[in-house]
Structures are given as C-alpha cells and as structure tokens.
C-alpha cells in the first residue's frame, strides 16, 4: 500500500487500480474503528481474568482477539505513515498486511464478531445485538463481491453456531424467524455495500487509467531525455588531444538531463583550438542547438586559424537551429606553439582566465560582444596575447562564478582566479580543485546551472 513509483503506475492493471483505491479507503475507516475494537478487546481481557464465574475458555479467546486487533492497529499505523511520508518505509509485518489488506480486515471482523458473540452467549439473546450491528458496519468497507460474500457468509456461520448453542435455540419457533430477520439484514447490507463499492470501483478505474496514461507519457519523456543526454555526452570529447607542449583537462556537469554547455578540442596544423560554449538555459532545446553548433565547428575546423571568422559564420547556424530565438555565448582559444601567441575570440562568453606562470597572477581576458543568435549584426571581436611555458588558460561557463550559496552570495570571478592561481599542479588537479571549491561554497544548495571548465597548461 506504499506509494507506487512511476514505473509501477505505467504498468498498473484495472484490478490493481481498484484494489489500491479500496485499500486506501479501508485503511482510513478501519484505522478508526480498530481503536474501538482495541478498547473492547481490553475490556474483554479484563473481564475474562477478573470475573470468577466466566468460563476458562474466555481467557484464550480474549487474548487471541486482543493480539490480532493490536497487531492490525500497529500495522495500519505503519501503512498510514508510509502514505503520508514519502521516505517512510513500513516494517515487515505492515508490508505483510498491506499485500492483502482486505483479507486481513475480513479476518479481524470475523474474529472480533465471534469473540463478542462468544462472550454474550451466557446472556440469553444479548449476542443478537452484535449480529445486527456487525453486518451494518461492513457497509462502510470497500470490497469486491466475492470478498463481501466471504465476509457475510463467515458472519452468518458464526450466527448459526451461536443460535444453535444459545438457550434461545431450544425453541424452533424463535430460531426460524431469527435466521430470517438476520438474513434480511445481511442481504440489505450486502446490497448497499456492493452498490457503493461498485461506484468507487468505476471511479477508481477512470482515474487509474488517466494516471496510467500520464505515467506512460512521463516515462516516454524521461526515456527521450535520457537518450538526448547520452547523445549530448557523446558529443563531448572523450579525452583531450595528446600534445607534447600542453596539459589539458576539461569537464561539463549539466544541471538537468540535457545541459546547455559544450566544449571541444580541435588540432589544426599543429595548433590547438579549444571551444567553450553555453546556450541560454538548459534542456532539450539547448541540446538541439548545441548539436547544430558542434556540427558547424566540425565542418569549419580547418578555418579555426581565424576563430572570429568561424564564429561569424556560425551566427546563421544558431539563428536557424530553432524557431525560438536561441542565444549562445561562446569562446574560442587558439594556441600556436611556434609563435607562442594565443588568439581569443568571444561572443558574449565569460572572461577567459590567463594565469601567468612566472608571477602566478590571474588576468581576465574579456571581449565585449553580443552572443550568437542575437542578430544585432556585430562582428565577433578577437584578441591575441603572448604566452610562455608555465602559463595556464582556463575557459569556463557562468555556472561556476554565478554559483550561489545559502546566504545568496555569488562565487565570483575573483574567487575563481584566486583558486586557480594558488594551484600549481596539473591541469586535472586545477580542474578538480575548482570543482571541489565550488561544491564547498554551494553547500547544500542545488546546482542551478550547467558547470563547464577547461584547463590548459603550457609545458
């Protein structure tokens, strides 16, 4: 009776829908009446031990009744907690009851009725009151016709046994009308209970079919997003190029199933071009735009010796990748080992960090331009800077320095520069140090945006 998962909802059958709805209703009603049962059980136990003239058989009967009632009350308490609290796991005996809740309820009702009748047999005719009350109380239960038939048949069997054992049974003229009257009561209660359960069954199936359809649609979307995520991950480089003069490490951590960040490496005529981009937002639309962008870079890889020219040509790719206006901030770093010149082109992307190896100082290289897809007609700016052995370049997305902690404070570019400048290890060590520091700064707050970082050390 615990909350079904999305996969269980998608596979649920109509009988399971009905059973789940019946169990939910019965759990609420039976939990309330079980407290009354428990109260009567305590009274019966006390009476069976205290009364001197009571038969000895009353003691085991009252103890069995009390044990079963308290067991059911404890199990229903656990099941109610599992219904109200998402992470609550019911114990073993509660799960055992929940697997066949209707059968347990029928057993409790019959045992309780039999116990009360057994105790009332000594009082001539008093048990007949219980024979009328119990069938009436069963109308509130939601049961299948065969389950209801079993319940009423079991109660009638106890009635017949009681009628034959009670002093009133010695008069045939009293027994026949008694059976007839109780039979009418049971027939009436059976009919009302069955009709009410039938209406609940119809509603349960209608709502269950709707929930099953919604669950299957959610699973379809989940599977598509999972596939899209796998496709996007496959677009990222498996490993950096092995170049004797560089040490490279990069990673992209999406905030949702399909992220909006992208990075890649291209080796062109012995030079290394690194691309780092970020589509506004994240999700399936972002993934589609990034796929188109990656295809464009692959086709234009031989022209990456002029990064700004490539980004200008990709303006139309971004503009026509979706009917929605998508904007992409992107930066390209081209490193030439012969001239020791780094060429940087950027379309609205966060500043590139240049760590000078000799002084361990961090320089922000920022080029002001609108992102791709803005359709403002601006040319992508480009800049060149010299580099030497020991220098480090870091490309990143705004998901790093815009990370917010529980106090609403941003991580900031200044902190990012200090962390990188203080780390003199390999590119992988620098990358991992930044990620650990960002995680520590964020604390228990969820990741709100994609995080991408690419570190290049000149060796």
What do these coordinates show?
This protein has 13 helices and 10 strands. The longest helix has about 60 residues. It is of the alpha+beta class and about 450 residues long. The mean pLDDT is about 85. The two termini are about 65 Å apart. Helix 2 packs across helix 8 and helix 3 runs antiparallel to helix 5. It folds into 2 domains: about 210 residues, no CATH class; about 220 residues, Phosphatase 2c, domain 1, CATH 3.60.40. Helix content is about 55%, strand content about 15%.
Question: What's this, in brief?
Answer:
The chain has 459 residues and is α+β, with helices and mostly antiparallel strands. The protein has 13 helices and ten strands.
Please give the structural blueprint:
Layout lengths: L5 H6 L2 H37 L7 H27 L7 H8 L1 H20 L6 H11 L7 H21 L6 H64 L10 E8 L7 E8 L2 E9 L4 H16 L7 H13 L8 E9 L4 E7 L4 E5 L4 E5 L16 E5 L5 E5 L1 H4 L11 H9 L5 H16 L8 E8 L1
Antiparallel strand pairs: 1-10, 2-3, 3-4, 4-5, 5-8, 6-7, 6-9, 9-10
Q: How much strand content do the residues show?
A: 15-25%
User: What is the CA-atom radius of gyration, in angstroms?
Assistant: 37 Å
Largest sheet data: 5 strands, antiparallel
Total strands: 10
| Broad structural category | alpha+beta
The overall pLDDT, averaged over residues, is: 87
């Amino acid at each position: 009776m615990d909350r079904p998962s999305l996969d269980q909802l998608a596979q649920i059958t109509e009988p399971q829908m009905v059973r789940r709805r019946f169990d939910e209703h019965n759990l609420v009603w039976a939990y309330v009446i079980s407290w009354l049962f428990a109260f009567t059980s305590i009274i019966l136990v006390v009476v069976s031990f205290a009364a001197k003239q009571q038969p000895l058989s009353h003691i085991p009967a009252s103890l069995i009744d009390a044990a079963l009632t308290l067991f059911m009350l404890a199990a229903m308490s656990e099941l109610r907690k599992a219904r109200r609290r998402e992470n609550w796991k019911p114990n073993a005996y509660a799960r055992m009851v929940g697997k066949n809740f209707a059968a347990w309820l029928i057993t409790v009702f019959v045992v309780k009725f039999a116990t009360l009748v057994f105790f009332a047999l000594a009082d001539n005719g008093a048990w007949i009151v219980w024979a009328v009350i119990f069938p009436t109380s069963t109308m509130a239960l939601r049961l299948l016709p065969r389950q209801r038939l079993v319940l009423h048949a079991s109660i009638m069997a106890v009635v017949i046994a009681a009628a034959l054992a009670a002093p009133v049974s010695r008069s045939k003229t009293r027994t026949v009308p008694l059976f007839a009257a109780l039979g009418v009561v049971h027939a009436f209660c059976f009919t009302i209970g069955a009709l009410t359960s039938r209406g609940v069954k119809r509603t349960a199936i209608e709502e269950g079919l709707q929930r099953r359809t919604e669950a299957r649609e959610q699973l379809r979307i989940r599977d598509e997003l999972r596939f899209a995520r796998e496709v996007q991950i496959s677009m990222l480089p498996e490993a950096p190029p092995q170049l004797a003069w560089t040490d490279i490490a990069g990673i992209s951590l999406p905030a949702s199933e399909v992220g909006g960040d992208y990075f890649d490496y291209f080796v062109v005529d012995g030079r290394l071009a690194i691309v780092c981009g970020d589509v506004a937002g994240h999700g399936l639309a972002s993934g589609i735009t990034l796929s188109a962008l990656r295809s464009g870079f692959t086709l234009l890889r031989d022209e990456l010796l002029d990064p700004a020219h490539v980004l200008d040509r990709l303006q139309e790719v971004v503009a026509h990748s979706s009917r929605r206006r998508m904007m992409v901030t992107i930066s390209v770093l081209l490193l030439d080992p012969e001239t020791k010149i780094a060429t940087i082109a950027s379309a609205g992307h966060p500043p590139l960090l240049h760590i000078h190896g000799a002084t361990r100082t961090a320089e922000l290289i920022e080029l002001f331009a609108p992102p791709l897809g803005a359709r403002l007609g601006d040319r992508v700016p480009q800049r060149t800077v010299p580099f030497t052995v020991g220098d480090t370049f870091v490309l990143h997305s705004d998901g790093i320095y815009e990370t917010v902690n529980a106090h609403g404070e941003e991580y900031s570019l200044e902190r990012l520069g200090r962390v990188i400048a203080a780390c003199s290890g390999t590119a992988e060590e620098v990358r991992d140090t930044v990620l650990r520091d960002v995680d520590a700064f964020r604390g228990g707050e969820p990741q709100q945006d994609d995080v991408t970082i690419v570190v290049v050390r000149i060796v």
